[in-house]
Amino acid sequence: MSETSQATESRSYPPPEDLAAQANVGPEVYEEAARDRLAFWESAARRLTWEREWDTALDWTNPPFAKWFVGGKLNVAYNCLDRHVEAGHGDQVAYHWEGEPGDTRTLTYADLKDEVCRAANALLELGVQAGDRVAIYLPMIPEAVISMLACARIGAVHMVVFGGFSADALASRITDAGAQVVITADGGYRRGAPSALKPAVDDAVSRTEGVRHVLVVKRTEQDVEWSEGRDLWWHDVVTKQSAEHTCEFFDAEHPLYIMYTSGTTAKPKGILHTSGGYLTQVAYTHWATFDLKPDRDVYWTAADVGWVTGHSYIVYGPLANRATSVMYEGTPETPHRGRWFELIQKYGVTILYTAPTVIRTFMKWGEDIPAGFDLSSLRLLGSVGEPINPEAWSWYHQHVGGGRCPIVDTWWQTETGGHMINPLPGVTSLVPGSAQVPFPGISAKVVDDEGNELSDDSTGLLVLTEPWPSMLRTIWGDDDRYVDTYWSRFGNMYFAGDGAKKDADGNIWLLGRVDDVMNVSGHRISTTEVESSLVGHPTVAEAAVVGASDPTTGQGIVAFVILRGNAEDSGDELVQQLKTHVAKDIGPIAKPRQIMVVQELPKTRSGKIMRRLLRDIAENRELGDVTTLTDSSVMNMIKDKLPAAPAED
Length: 649
Prior knowledge:
- By secondary structure, the protein is of the alpha/beta class.
- It has 20 helices and 30 strands.
- 31% of the residues lie in helices and 23% in strands.
- The longest helix has 17 residues, at 109-125.
C-alpha cells in the first residue's frame, strides 16, 4: 500500500464516464452560479413547493443577520412528505429502518406522512404552538424523524439532543431553549444491550422549569420512573390521533430548529436555522453532491439525527428529494464487525456517507471484513465530519468502493447547515484528502491573519465572504455572541475557525480547527497534517496529535497512535521509524517530540477524538470532564503507559 499524506498527495481520479454522462449537475453549474449567485439559489429554491413565492431572494441590509427568500411561505414537512404522496409516490420507501437487535421497520412516504400527522395532532393536543420549543432526546429510531417533522409541520422549533449526552448537557439545553415538551424513549440499543434514556430526562427536567410534558416511546421495555400527569406514553397519546392534518404555511424565516454545538467557552452555542433557505440548500446540495436518483438509489447517511449531519442529510435533504434511505440504530461492531457491510448488501445501498473516524476503524479491523460481503451495489461514497487523510480515502475507495466509486469529501459545519466545499461526482477530478472547491453559489477563500486572500500553494484561514441560504441566523437568545464568535475577526467575512491550505492547483485542504494548529518554533503545523502523515505509515491505523507546552519550542508535538491489526509494536525502534517518517514527509520541524502506541483513543459517542483530554495527559494535568466519552477507562490505560517525562531523542 502506498504511503501518502497531504504533503505528498499527487493522485487524481476523473469522474467515471457513465456517472458523468448522467450526472444531475455538470460543469456549467459553476459558471451559472458565478454569473448570478442569487438567481442560482432562486432556481434551487424553485425545486421546492412554496405556497407563496418570495419578494426578495436575499436581504443583507443588516449584516451579519441574513434573511433569505423574504416574503415566501412554505411548510418544511409538506415539502418532505405530502407533495411526494400527492404526486403518486406514496408507496415508495422513505426509510428501511434496522434496529441493532435485528428488528426492522419499513416506512413508505404515505406511512411517514400519516405518522407525522398523528404526532403533529398529539403535540397540538399537548398545547404546543408555532414557535414553541420541543426537546427531542431519542435513539436512532423512526420516532426521532417523525418527531422532528411533526414539529416542522406545526411550526414548533425542535431541539434534538444526541442520546449519548449527559443529564447535565440535556438540562442546560432545555433551559437555554425554553423547551416545554421533551420527547424521549425508555432507552435504545447500544453495543448489544439496552441503554436507558428516561433516567437522564427525569434528572434533567428536575433541574429545569417550564417542561409540561415528557412523551416517552417504548423501545427497550426497561422499567422507568413515572411522573403522573407529566409523563405520557407515545403509544397512548400519538397512536389514537387522526392521520389527517392540514398543515399551515410559514414564513421562509420561521425558525425550524436549534442545535447546540461547543465553543471556546463552557456554555454551548444554540445555532438557529430557519426554514426556506435551509431547506433550499440542504435539498439542492443533497441532490447535486450525491447525484441522487430517487427512483433507483438507496441512500445511507451512517450518522445520528442528534448531529447536524443527521438533520440535513438523514432527514431534510433526503426527504425533500424523495430519497429511499437506510437508518440504523446501532454501532458498527454489533453483533459483529461486518454489520454495516451486511446492511449495504441487504438493502442494496448505492450511496454511503460516513465519517473518516469510522473508515479508520474499519482499516484497523482489516480489509478482509468488507471483502466478505457483496458491496457491488455501491456507486458513490461520501465523507463528513473531519478532514479525511489520503490513506483512509484510498482504503475507503479500494476496499469499500471497489475502486470504482467517487468519494465526495464534504466540508461544512453545524453553523453552515449544508455542504460548502466539496467535489461534484460528475465534474471533479478527485484528489484524495482534499475537499477541493467551494460548492456552486458559495464564496469561500483562504486568507492571512489580516484577511487578505492568499494565492495558490499557501496556508491560512478559511472564510466565507458572501451569505448563503442555509447559514445560521444567530445564536439562540444571544445576537451579540453570534456577531462576536463568527464575524468580529474579519468584519464582513464569516470566520469558520478552520485552517486551510490551497495547493498549487487551487484545491482546498482543510487543516482542522485553528485551535488544533500547533506553533512549533514559530511554525504553524496542523494536527491534521501530522495525523495524516502518521496514518500514511503502513503500521498505523489511527493517530491523534496534540500540541503540548515545550520550554524550547513553545509547543512540542505529542502523538498517540493505534497500530494496524497485523503490525508489531517494536517499541523504541517503531517510535523512531515513525518520527523519521513524519520528518521526511512534512519536514523536520513536524517531527513529534513523543509518540505513544495505545490500544484505544478517547472518543465521544459520535466518534470524535477528545484531543482536549490527550492534551491534559501530554501536559501532566488533572483530567477534565470525561462524561461524554464512550469508554472513560481508555484514559486510565493511556495514563498508565505515559512516561514521567517526555523521552528525548
